[in-house]
Structures are given as C-alpha cells and as structure tokens.
Amino acid sequence: MYSMWNLWHGCHKVSEGCMHCYVYRRDSKYDIDSSQVRKTHSFNLPVARKRDGSYKVPPHTTLWTCFTSDFFISEADEWRNDAWEMIHARPDVNFILITKRIDRVAECLPDDWGEGYDNVTLYCTVENQKRADMRLPVFKQLPFKHKCIICEPLLGPISLSQWLGEWVEQVTVGGESGPEARPCDFEWVKQIRADCVDANIPFFFKQTGANFIKDGKTYKIPRKLQSSQARKAAIDTKPK
After folding, report:
1. Nearest in space to 120 (alpha carbons), one of 89, 87, 76, 150
2. Cα-Cα-Cα-Cα dihedral of 122, 154, 138, 70, to 10°?
3. CB 23 within 8 A of CB 68
4. Where are the alpha helices (DSSP H) in 29-113?
5. Which of 145, 151, 126 is nearest to 137 (CA)?
6. Which residues have C-beta within 8 Å of that of residue 200, sequence separation ≥ 6?
7. What does the alpha-carbon distance between residue 148 and residue 151 come to, in Å, rounded to a whole number?
8. What share of the chain is helix, strand, coil (3-state, %, to 5)?
C-alpha cells in the first residue's frame, strides 16, 4: 500500500529542475505563496490513531514524504526532530524521502541514526549532468541503508556510469509535466538505462513528460497518458 505524507508545505527553487515546479503552479491558482514554508495538518499522520486505537497508516504502508516541500529544507529544522521520532516509532512503515538538498542531509540526521534506519529510503534528484556531478558524490557517502537516484525532470543527457554501484538500489527517470514542460529525449532515457544495465541496477521509466522526443520527433503527451506511455516503452529492468 502506498500513501503520501506532506508534513510541511512550501519550498524554494534551488536548481534547474525547479523552474516549473508543480507546487508553485498549483498554489498560484489559489493565491498561495509557495515560498512560505509551514507545518501542515498532516504533520502527525504516521502516529495518528483511529477511534479503535489502530494507526490511521496501517503497517507495511510505503509513505512518500514531502511532495510539496523538501524534507531537508532549512525552514523545517525546528520540526524535523519530531518527524524523525515519528519515523523511528513506525518501523513497520517504509518512508521515502526525495531531496535536491543533498548537501544538508548529514547535518539534519537524528542522534541515533548510526548507519541509517531500516525503514527509510533516500532518493537524490539529479536533472542534468551538472547536478549529478555535484550531488552524487555527496549522496554516495551518506549513511543510509537504502538509496535511489531519480532523474526527474530529465533536462538533458546524463552519464551515471561513474557513480552507479551496489549502493544504488534503483534509478528512476521521468520527463517534465505541465504547460511549460521542457523536452525529454528518449535517447537520454535509453542512455541512463544502458548505464543501469551495465551496473546491474534496476531502472524505472516513470513518465515521458509532456514534450517527449523520440527519433527526432516531438510528441505532445497529455498528463494522464505520460505514465502509460512510459510503460508501453517496456524498458524497465530488474537486477540479474
């Protein structure tokens, strides 16, 4: 079972992949300032209980965390220890953290972290070669038991060959959505896949994006079809 935990809302654009952020796009429709970081009503979700005393989030759930912010954003420093306590209190739930702020992670870990909690997976976002070269050396050294790379929105060709190894559990790739989406070329996707195959790392093609280039031709793909079109490519891999 999969669910979402947006424990704080709001973020700041830090790199090229943030330019057309869907959070900013959606908030603008309601005159919400996306740059203001605030705790949400869902903050205590992992430990919230029903009237019968059972958890609202059942055991074995995978919680995708902070889709409307970044878990390691500085404005959330005062709340993060409470978040870690809730994560630690629910070893029966798997927590997925996705970040572009890989440089802040080490200073934001709890005192009892050690080599990492078994129920936490960290995804590092890299949207182009520049960000891959900046973030992945730091990411590789961080003490997490589960690490994945996500290239989304993929904005250019990326070579991951020098970084991939047993420390990476999966690489996910996806194009950019939205009315101002920048192109995603299938050749870029296939190159990353080839790097994953060579390193025996699972590869997941999540979505094409709105402007998908294949064999030199650009296809305008509606949001509702971007994931299914990626599935039709049938290029996902699993380790040997």
Report:
1. 87
2. -50
3. yes
4. 77-89
5. 126
6. 239, 240
7. 10
8. 30, 20, 50
215: left (phi over 0), alpha (psi -120 to 50) or beta: left
Q: Could you count the other beta carbons within 10 Å of the beta carbon of residue 60?
A: 9
CA 63, 66, 67, 72 torsion: positive or negative? negative
With a CB cutoff of 8 Å and minimum separation 6, the contacts of 89 are: 46, 47
Beta-bridged to residue 63, according to DSSP, are 3, 95
How many residues can be counted in the chain? 240
Rounded CA gap, 217 and 191, in Å?
Answer: 18
If you write DSSP's letter for every residue of 204-226 in order, what string do you get? EEEE--SEEEETTEEEE--HHHH
State the DSSP code for 10.
-
pLDDT tens-place values along the chain, 240 residues long = 899 999 999 999 999 999 999 999 999 999 999 999 999 999 999 999 999 999 999 999 999 999 999 999 999 999 999 999 999 999 999 999 999 999 999 999 999 999 999 999 999 999 999 999 999 999 999 999 999 999 999 999 999 999 999 999 999 999 999 999 999 999 999 999 999 999 999 999 999 999 999 999 999 999 999 999 999 999 999 976
Whether this prediction's pTM lies above 0.85 is answered by yes
170 forms beta bridges with 148
For residue 188, the number of C-alpha atoms closer than 13 Å in the C-beta half-sphere is 23
